[in-house]
Amino acid sequence: MTSRLLMPWRGAKVRPETAAGVGGSTRATAILDWEQPVVAALVERVRREAGPGADARAVLRVAHGIIAREVRPVYSVEDRHPASRTLRLGRGSCSQRMAVLEAVARAVGVRTRVRGLLVDGAFWYPRFPRLKRLVPERVLLAWPEFLIDREWVPIGELFEPVAEGEAFSNRGGETLFDAVARVGVDWSGSVSCGAQGGGAACDLSAQVLVDLGYFDSRDELFARHGQTLCRTARILLEPVLARWSAGARLPAITGYRQ
Question: How far apart are the first and last CA of the chain?
């Protein structure tokens, strides 16, 4: 039931870059523009709230909490928007909010990289039950990792999972970005969902159709593989989806206000 009509053309398969060959970076990029004043202001706030002597993981957890509370989750389809723009608007997609967290990480000296995954579009059916035929067949996901104490930590392992609670369902107002604060999210098959749908971690590896490997930045991933939707689809859909809050009803095509 998923659609290929809105997806960009992708050429022949490329050999994925292994994790060992990608060292990440702390430099600012077009997307991870941590040198911009609005991002720098967030970084200073994170430092204050984390307190003196806080380690890298604690700092990133504080940053995640601020972003989760103050950047409204929406269905924007422009993954290449700068982190500074997301902060100025006060809203962003799951991917855009992750980019803000990556920008903060780089600003405080934590190297980041991303793993590129093409995820089965059916994984997003619960969010769009009446629009399944328009859901892309494959969704490109830039999954961040952070170099902490000389080990690469995926965003899904940044927090200590809550012992009890519902598994991530990809429906309602909770996005992947929000979910990682309470439940471990893994795309490699190294963990399994807790008993009876709850538990501390959830294996989503069955949703991965293609593993594109690792990239020094999400900028590099999108430059090489494009975005989930083709350019025409993004131009047409962005004005509406960028204001559609996660878990809310689809807004009217016309007459909306920011």
Answer: 32
As a three-state string, the secondary structure of the chain is: CCECCCCCCCCCCCCCECHHHCCCECCCCCCCCCCCHHHHHHHHHHHHHHCCCCCHHHHHHHHHHHHHHHCEEECCCCCCCCHHHHHHHCEECHHHHHHHHHHHHHHCCCCEEEEEEEEEHHHHHHHCCCCHHHCECEEEEEEEEEEECCEEEEHHHCCCCCCCCCCCCCCCCCCHHHHCCCCEEECCCCCCCCHHHCCCEEECHHHEEEEEEEECCHHHHHHHHCCCCCHHHHHHHHHHHCCCECCCCCCCCCCCCC
Q: Which two tokens stand for residue 80?
A: 């290449």
pLDDT digits (tens, 9 = 90+) for 128-177: 877 787 788 899 999 999 999 999 999 999 998 775 667 788 887 889 99
Residue 171 token pair? 């429906």
Predicted model pTM = 0.86
